[in-house]
Design brief:
ABC transporter involved in vitamin B12 uptake, BtuC; Diphtheria Toxin Repressor, domain 2; about 70% helix; disordered C terminus
């Protein structure tokens, strides 16, 4: 069945299931060209967009994508036909000219880079719109298809366009693989790269040239207006998913390729869905997912972790309060009533009851006497001793090393006690010459005491004299 209009599929009499089967059969040459072109475009844009994101040059991609429009129009005017090679050459020249103009403005004036890029974006795009309007007024202008470069027309990707996009993608991948080390160093530490002899300026210009190639290759699929989104959105999503550049390149190119194919599929199913905008929407959905659910940087994940941390700190503060009650009576009894806990925490009995139940759920305490008596388990005693030990060691360290006044160290120690690792605590003890009292004269529990309460021996550390009840 022949190709049709701006959408890949415009069939109204076929059910969605039949449309899906028809899509995955790849019977139509137009469909094959569109899907392959979208995949190539997604890979190239994902890879190059990664370097734009890590170099904080997202606006450069937007500027370049708009600056190529005069070159597209000039390439068409050169031969009065939609010749892919002429349009490619014209667009690349215009894109590089826009980049050089922006660089010249930034280097020769007091204007910042974002201002220079904004000027170039608006100026070149305005020139491009004027040229496109002139072309449309020519006798064959309405049939030229030049206007499709504004918003893209994946259905119009020809075999020549696909060859051009494939060549650009292969070139991008080869250059990134061969010059990965140089791109890595200049992306994250240009000053170090310059000091060690890397041609930072040349690498930057080469990256802009590759970017111009990729932008021109993507114009037919998503257009001038949306190509910057395909450059930045997959890379931005990948940036939230990993902290490694190699992995980020792989994820961004996978997202770009996947969103291109899915965008083609959804456009094929929908009767009035333009392919380019659908690709961008799919990429935006992927970014939204990464923004919310990324393992380390996702908004929802961070909220869940923050709540879990808040609850853990609450449990640990309760453990510390129980230890203080036990310490106040020289560990004569190992049970603490809810009333004693509430008085210590200066809270209500209901609050103390909730805290006690939280400790029980995590195996840190047991309740007796109809829930009115709280008794720490071995693990609870160990963790309580560790917290008090961390708190008092940090107070002592601040008074010794940072010269804090003894009455100004409590609040800082309240925060740090929950995050100190065992290695850091051992180092604190060593630096403090294994002191046994804090700045207020209170005894610092030792690691041996905390583990002796659990019945565990600490290798190389003798148990405290007389043991600890």
């Amino acid at each position: 069945m022949p190709a049709r209009a701006a959408k890949i599929g415009e069939i109204t009499d076929i059910a969605i299931l039949e449309q899906a089967i028809r899509f995955f059969s790849f019977q139509d040459p137009t469909l094959r060209f569109a899907v392959a072109g979208a995949a190539m475009m997604g890979i190239a844009c994902g890879v190059l967009g990664t370097f734009l994101v890590v170099r904080r040059l997202a606006l450069v991609g937007d500027t370049l994508s708009h600056a190529v429009l005069p070159g597209v129009a000039a390439g068409f005017l050169w031969g009065q036909t939609k010749n892919p090679v002429a349009i490619f050459v014209g667009a690349v020249v215009a894109g590089l000219a826009g980049t050089m103009v922006a660089t010249a403005i930034r280097r020769t004036t007091r204007l910042k880079e974002d201002t220079a890029l904004g000027l170039v974006l608006a100026g070149f795009y305005a020139v491009g719109i004027c040229l496109v309007t002139m072309i449309q007024r020519l006798p064959t202008g309405n049939k030229s298809g030049i206007d499709k470069f504004l918003f893209g027309q994946a259905a119009a990707i020809s075999a020549g366009d696909l060859k051009l996009m494939s060549a650009v993608t292969v070139l991008v991948l080869v250059v990134v693989v061969v010059f990965y080390k140089e791109l890595l160093v200049t992306s994250f530490d240009p000053a170090f790269a310059r000091a060690t002899g890397f041609p930072v300026r040349l690498i930057q210009d080469g990256l802009m040239l590759l970017l111009a190639f990729a932008v021109v290759g993507a114009l037919q699929a998503v257009g001038v207006v949306l190509v910057s989104a395909m450059l930045i959105t997959p890379a931005a999503a990948a940036y939230l998913l990993t902290d490694r550049l190699r992995r980020m390149l792989l994820i961004a190119s996978t997202i770009g390729c996947g969103t291109g194919i899915v965008g083609c599929f959804l456009s094929f199913l929908g009767n009035s869905l333009p392919t380019g905008p659908i690709m961008v929407l799919v990429a935006s959905v992927v970014f939204a997912g990464a923004f919310l659910f990324a393992p380390r940087h996702g908004l929802v994940v961070r909220w869940v972790k923050a709540r879990a941390r808040h609850r853990r700190v609450g449990r640990e503060n309760t453990l510390k309060a129980l230890y203080h009650v036990l310490e106040s009576r020289a560990f004569a009894r190992d049970g603490v009533t809810l009333k004693e806990l509430a008085l210590r925490r200066r809270e209500t009995l209901d609050d103390a009851d909730r805290q006690a139940k939280a400790l029980v759920r995590h195996g840190l305490a047991v309740v007796e006497d109809d829930g009115q008596l709280l008794r720490l388990t071995s693990e609870g005693k160990k963790r309580a001793a560790e917290l008090v030990r961390n708190h008092r060691l940090w107070e002592l360290y601040l008074t010794h090393a940072a010269r804090y006044a003894a009455d100004h160290v409590h609040d800082d120690a309240e925060k740090i006690e929950h995050v100190l690792g065992e290695d850091v605590v051992w180092e604190l003890e060593r630096r403090l010459n294994y002191a046994d009292t804090d700045p207020h004269g209170k005894r610092i529990p030792t690691l041996a005491e905390g583990q002796a309460r659990t019945g565990r021996a600490v290798e190389g550390v003798p148990p405290p004299e007389g043991g600890v009840p």
